Amino acid sequence: MKLFQTYDSPFPTRVRLLLMAKGLSAEIIQPPGFHFDGLTKEDYLKINPIGRVPALVLDDGRALPESEVICEYLEDSYPEPSLRPADPFDRARMRLLSRICDFYLVMAMVPLFDYSARPRKTWDREGIEKAFGKISDALAYLEQFIGEDGYAVGKAVSQADGALAPQLILTTEWAPPTFNMDDPYSAFPSSPLTGRQSRMTP
Ligand SMILES: N[C@@H](CCC(=O)N[C@@H](CS)C(=O)NCC(=O)O)C(=O)O
User: Fold this and answer.
1) Ligand 1: residues whose CB is within 6 Å?
2) How far is the CA of 87 from the centre of ligand 1 (A)?
């Protein structure tokens, strides 16, 4: 297997975490247009028409984009050790946390990623504050469903940990100092999320 990816993106990290947890190996490739030499961006679009990272290429040449879909494929193909909780409701919670992460937390962060790629003088304070407001909303949604035993769900690592951890690190360690804003976790002083933060940043 080959994993087209970059180290600065949280989405491939989700796949790498699952590969590590399952003891699987994949050839790591930085694709064209992402500081990769060899292939062109057009070549990469033939592998992944969406043009984003990650993409997983199987040994027979078939390719899959989208981190969640790749993780589900790897889970189906290599079921042990399982990164899906056994209980159906916990399994639904795992998917719910991943969905809240992708649909609300990531979408709240997108304007900040856009700002960070532009000169600081073009940044708009109102837009930054609005994005942080949406981040707080997303954290409040996560708060309702996240586990209290050190894992996203239950008492073991699951796919939801791989989805959440890279995004939460960006939310708490990158975004506040980059945009001179308070850490959005400060609104959750005794929450499992706050505990999660301290576990990630010893
Ligand atoms: N929903 C996708 C998101 C992937 C994504 O947005 N990757 C970004 C890096 S953080 C990317 O490849 N951006 C390059 C581009 O837009 O050209 C997934 O989960 O894999």
Assistant:
1) 9, 11, 51-54, 66-68
2) 31
Which stretches in the chain have pLDDT values below 70?
31-38, 194-202
3-state secondary structure of 2: strand
Domain ranges of the chain: 2-77, 88-200
Give the per-residue pLDDT at 36.
Answer: 54
- Structurally, what CATH architecture does the domain formed by 88-200 represent? Up-down Bundle (1.20)
For residue 101, how far is its CA from the centre of ligand 1 (angstroms)?
Answer: 14
The C-alpha angle 21, 194, 99, rounded to 5 degrees, equals 55
Give the pLDDT confidence score for residue 44 in this predicted structure: 87
Q: What is the pLDDT of residue 187?
A: 83
Per-residue tokens: 103: 């649909």
pLDDT value of position 196 = 54
CATH class for the domain made up of 2-77: alpha beta
Centre of ligand 1 to C-alpha 184, Å, is 24
Give pLDDT, residue 40.
78
Token digits of residue 34:
């992402």
The pLDDT assigned to 42 comes to: 85
> The tokens of 44 are what?
């990469």
pLDDT, residue 201, reads 45
- pTM given for the model: 0.91
Distances (CA, A) of 67 to 102, 185, 200: 10, 25, 21
Query: 47 with 55: CB under 8 angstroms?
Result: yes
Q: From start to end of 7-53, where are the E strands?
A: 27-29
